[in-house]
Amino acid sequence: MTQPLHQPSVPPAAYQPAAVNPTMAVSIRGLFKRYDQKIAVNGLSLDIPVGSFYGLVGPNGAGKTTTINMMTGMLKPDAGVVAILGLNVWQDVNAVKRLIGLMPQPDQIFSSLTGRQLLVYSGMLRGMPRAEVESRAKDLLQAFDLVEAADKAVSEYSSGMTKKICLATAMIHSPRILVLDEPFEAVDPVSSANIKDILSEYVSTGGTVIISSHVMSMVQRMCTHVAVINHGQVAAAGTVEQVAAGEDLDERFLQLVGGRHGAMHLDWLNGGTSPQQPADAQPAQPPRTPQGGAQA
């Protein structure tokens, strides 16, 4: 459902956001975050139902990553409240983090470790028994087609393989909410299909998946719900059908965020005439030597 955007503002000292919904997987009320003179997130409110496959979409700089970092306890908001399965993130951040699987970015992992070592390390860091971690690591390596690369350093992995091991580290502790930033970027079609199957099965058991993505076709095909974020606010949120409003999600997205303009004609790109070279200009004559012949 479309929500009106308002101009960026600063929350007053006595600002009190509305109450969160404790029945939701994620309930956000009035989030604000400011960096110097830029307001990255501006009073954002959103509810993400339990068991949903939720897409967060928006143009670059819209506030998606900042929202995710505040939602998962990685960044403290200037104002506002986030509840994860009814728990206030900043009142019990450690308990909340146990409920969340946040997919790290490739530059946030220890790439000198092997894939197997990275999974075992991720599980034990969360206090899991070693035997259980090793068993789950074996299952995840098989599920993500990484068995042959299990004992190779992650630094030797391709971009797609690195994405898969990052996702596996987010799942090792069996979280109830998975938060994934562009999980299918640089992943080959076969691996992508396997990942989608794993995530779909996870949602079918009551888990919640939150994906930040720029690929509208993937969001429309996979997600049950979507929120369009623009200028640090929710421009529209609801089921994919509600937000699309009978149109292709790509077109609806462009309507909501704006910014589309007529195609600029680059004549030079299509074999046209350079502005510095008039159409009727004659080619330059080769210089002459003193004897009257052309230089080679």
UniProtKB/TrEMBL annotation:
What is the predominant subcellular site recorded for this chain? membrane
Q: Which CDD domains match?
A: ABC_DR_subfamily_A (cd03230)
Annotated membrane topology is: Peripheral membrane protein
Q: Where in the cell is it found?
A: Cell membrane
Could you tell me the keywords of this UniProt record? Antibiotic resistance, ATP-binding, Nucleotide-binding, Transport
User: Per the record, a Pfam family?
Assistant: ABC_tran
Positions of the region Disordered? 268-296
Q: Which GO terms describe its molecular function?
A: ATP binding; ATP hydrolysis activity
Domain named ABC transporter is located at: 26-256
User: PANTHER family from the entry?
Assistant: ABC TRANSPORTER ATP-BINDING PROTEIN, DOXORUBICIN RESISTANCE ATP-BINDING PROTEIN DRRA
The name on file for this protein is ABC transporter
> To which species is this protein native?
Bifidobacterium canis
Q: What is the lineage of its organism?
A: Bacteria, Bacillati, Actinomycetota, Actinomycetes, Bifidobacteriales
